[in-house]
Design a protein that fits this description.
alpha+beta; two-stranded antiparallel sheet; five-stranded mixed beta sheet; 7 strands
């Protein structure tokens, strides 16, 4: 049994005709708390996205594009202080009902990514934008003004062994 996503907005693809459909998504407070926990954030104070879906009449793929924004509070990797930041990103991907039938066969094509599978005629737009939010987050967040202690930065580029670094540390003490 698969766990339910923290932010789920199922879109039934039968709703999609020949024209484009635009959906606006907003996470409620409970969903934001669960997403913050999943992504290792102090908090997620706002999260919204606009998603556009359109069927490609030639391939049958469903092209999904959109824009997301969120107000997050992250922990600085240098000071461990919590600090707020605003995240904005755009994304696009394709879905296909046939992608679910590919199974274990994997072909790497650096030019074109394979379409995402459509499961049981549904695309979960909430989970999709949640994944793109996690990709938009800085994996090494630094609070404004936070900097490495200069003594931690190697200034001698000629030091070739760990013992040279230890010698420098001993000389400072």
């Amino acid at each position: 049994m698969q766990a339910r996503p923290e932010f789920s907005r199922p879109f039934v693809i039968d709703r999609l005709g020949f024209g484009a459909v635009t959906e606006t998504l907003r996470a409620n407070p409970e969903e934001r708390v669960r997403l913050a926990k999943r992504m290792g954030l102090v908090s997620l104070d706002g999260f919204a996205a606009t998603v556009r879906l359109q069927r490609d009449l030639n391939t049958g793929f469903i092209h999904v594009s959109g824009r997301l924004e969120g107000d997050v509070v992250q922990t600085c990797i240098l000071t461990l202080a919590a600090f707020p930041t605003h995240v904005e990103d755009s994304f696009e991907t394709e879905f296909s009902s046939d992608a679910a039938e590919i199974g274990d066969e994997i072909t790497l094509d650096m030019e074109n990514e394979p379409p995402e599978p459509i499961i049981d005629g549904v695309i979960d737009l909430g989970e999709l934008v949640s994944q793109y939010l996690s990709l938009a987050l800085d994996p090494y967040p630094r609070a404004p003004g936070a900097a490495l202690d200069p003594s931690w930065v190697e200034t001698d580029r000629q030091a070739t062994s760990p013992f040279a670094a230890l010698k420098n540390l001993k000389a400072r003490n």
